[in-house]
Amino acid sequence: MRPLYFENGVLRLIDQTKLPESTVWHECCSYDQVAKAIKDMIIRGAPAIGAAAAYGTVLGMSAIKTKDKTFFFDEVKRIADEIKNTRPTAVNLFWAVDRIVDKAYENREESIEKIIEIALAEAQRIDEEDVKSNRKIGEFGGELIHSGDTILTHCNAGSLATCDYGTALGMVRAAHDAGKQVHVFACETRPFLQGARLTAYELMKDGIPVTVICDNMAGYFMYTQQISCCIVGADRIVSNGDTANKIGTYSIAVLAKENNIPFYVAAPVSTIDFRICCGSRIPIEERDPHEVTHIRGCRIVPDGVNVRNPAFDVTPNRYITAIITDMGILYPPFSKSIQKLGERLNGGGV
Ligand code: MRU
């Protein structure tokens, strides 16, 4: 299930705020519509945000009416900054927009029409590469899943959060497709309910057994030995392996260690931020308190009470058993394994 399509100058997104009740396609014809869709979480999940942002940057470029290259590139920078300003935590957003802008700049000697054509091809490459990366994560990670496993996941790191197939759920899909009996426990993921609404929806659709639990039930199911392993996605992995993911991931990781349960992070290398040394440097998005005070339009908290809504937390590397990427599985010490991965990326060797 793909959450986004780009055709004839229109980016179509499954409106993830409306799932699972209704499948509504949301159309974006301009970069500011894409920026708003990212901010409002019509499209969400690090790799899907990246691909949408790449197409959004191209939409912005296409609408610049000029023959003056200096003005064109000034405008591209302004548009790119606006798109990058939508959500601060998932590094794929910055990675994808920069990839489009860099590609345009590398081809600055071409005509503006040609530059836009090249930028669109690059956005399509980001989209296609993501699907291939997820299949690879599934291939590599499949070996860590055994028949009979009960897998706890948090948030939605599935098809809907990527360009297709998923990262954490890519591993689950690969194991399921290989004939292994797997059962997923999906934490509901307050306040936005990505687990209850999106993970449950896409796994059910694929016939993969899934049970939804409230976030505060995770410890009970781990302590009573009903969970074989935890697999989550990531919004940003930094060079020592500290990982930002949906709020609540840290609590799950600590519980997993306490109960001797492997805790796996599944993510493409585009989610690794090699420039940041440790998790405390990752910007954490704080969202509208309304998401906490209301569930599906219904107020559940007294009017006027103080509310906080950080959307992500950071899991320190010591809680992570392995990071499954599209270039292989990374094991601790992550400072070393991530550095080696960076060298492979820079030096070819891939
Ligand atoms: O706020 P969201 O829904 O964009 O957060 C999504 C997550 O935290 C996912 O786990 C992460 O982006 C990985 S998606 C493959």
Question: What would you note in describing this structure?
Answer:
This protein has two domains: 132 residues, Four Helix Bundle (Hemerythrin (Met), subunit A), CATH 1.20.120; 204 residues, Translation initiation factor eif-2b, domain 2 (Rossmann fold), CATH 3.40.50. Strand 4, helix 6 and strand 5 form a beta-alpha-beta unit. The longest helix is centred in the middle third of the chain and has 31 residues. The protein has a seven-stranded mixed sheet. A four-stranded mixed sheet has the order 11-8-9-14, covered by helices on one side. A three-stranded antiparallel sheet has the order 1-2-3, with helices on one face. The model has no long low-confidence stretch (mean pLDDT 97). By secondary structure, it is α/β, with parallel strands linked by helices. The structure holds 5-S-methyl-1-O-phosphono-5-thio-D-ribulose (MRU).
Beta-strand fraction estimate: 15-25%
The set of bound ligands, ions and cofactors reads:
5-S-methyl-1-O-phosphono-5-thio-D-ribulose
Examine the secondary-structure arrangement and name the CATH architecture of the largest domain.
3-Layer(aba) Sandwich
- Give the integer mean of the pLDDT values: 97
Give the end-to-end Cα distance, rounded to a whole number of Å.
Answer: 28 Å
Write out the CATH superfamily name of the largest domain.
Translation initiation factor eif-2b, domain 2
Output the CATH class name of the largest domain.
Alpha Beta
Q: DSSP helix count?
A: 11
Strand order of the largest sheet: 6-5-4-7-10-15-16
What is the overall silhouette?
A: globular
Beta-strand segment tally: 16
Give the low-confidence spans: none
| H-E order | EEEHHHHHEHEHEHEEEHEEHEEEEEH
Helicity, as a percent range: 40-55%
Oligomer, anyone? single chain
